[in-house]
Structure prediction request, 60 residues.
Amino acid sequence: MRRIMRLKEVIHVCGIRRSTIYLWMHEGTFPKSRSIGSRAVGWDSEEIQKWVNDRLGGHD
Prediction:
């Protein structure tokens, strides 16, 4: 089921730190966050799962 993931969950699922997530987003090697409110961002769960699968050599 496609949903919005918050940073804490993205960190848990991907096993990387906040600073690395934002660095890789800036470099274009990690899915971009999207604004979901005036002071909140989230990530598309499908994009995060695809990123993880790609790193593990899996398929969608």
